[in-house]
Amino acid sequence: MATSTASERRAVAKREYDAFLAMCPSRQLLERISDKWVALVLAALGGDGPRPGQSTAGEPRAMRFSELSRRISGVSQKMLTQTLRALERDGMVTRTVTPTVPVTVTYELTALGHSLQGVMRGIKEWAEGHMEEVLTHRHEYDHRQVGAAD
Amino acid sequence: MATSTASERRAVAKREYDAFLAMCPSRQLLERISDKWVALVLAALGGDGPRPGQSTAGEPRAMRFSELSRRISGVSQKMLTQTLRALERDGMVTRTVTPTVPVTVTYELTALGHSLQGVMRGIKEWAEGHMEEVLTHRHEYDHRQVGAAD
DNA sequence: CAGGATCCAGTAGGATACTG
DNA sequence: CAGTATCCTACTGGATCCTG
Question: Which helix (H) or strand (E) holds B28?
């Protein structure tokens, strides 16, 4: 509310906000971004993952709605729209409408979105990279249930 | 299953698994860990966040069920149990039962869990650190709806 | 093509009560 | 203390239909 600069406020915020507290706004933000679709949309816009053909992987990139929809297999258009709206509202992506014959809409990461993507990329890559290990643990765990009682 | 080393398998996995694919196991793993409770439990066990009093912040630490429950405000015991079970099954945490008078159960991060926690910590901190910025964007966005039609 | 509006099933998740 | 079991609500999210 005061006339402090953004950097000033943010420095304070780091100490003020605590996601461990149920009532803290940062808790809601954590819930928002702790979402598989958010992770995948950011990853897609961030140029993450194996792309068919060569590409400027790792570079942020504007993508159309249908393009995103194809890339993130299994996402419904409702969820995609919803996720994009939320990300736009939070200032993570920009939505650009080009009034062509059938309208063209592109989404692109903002600086803020890109900073989050950097962090989220780690999550997705961790999941992909530790899959085997986790699968092994699950197998073991499930067998301990039916197996020996020790 | 084979006799390859963990690092060998992981190197392959990195290329095999793709969370963009709906059917890929890594997608399910991404869904699992893209959960606010997972993030908070890992953060708690990882010694994250401002702790009342001084503490060995940043160091993994064994915590009791009730302790976790208190630390993560707003979590129901059902969700906490469920989250801990899932994390245990996936090999992220160990559950230790000490047969004292009222039984004592402690949870602790495994090496695997700790590696994930390192990544997740970024998410939580990002949320706490960029709260102001996001709040500002939301405010702007919401006002564009009712405000001038440009 | 991009997405709003609806309907509706499935499930996440809270409240409560009981147990070793 | 550290759960398990049950009930029940509310929201998630998919499918479908419709519009600019």
Answer: helix B25-33
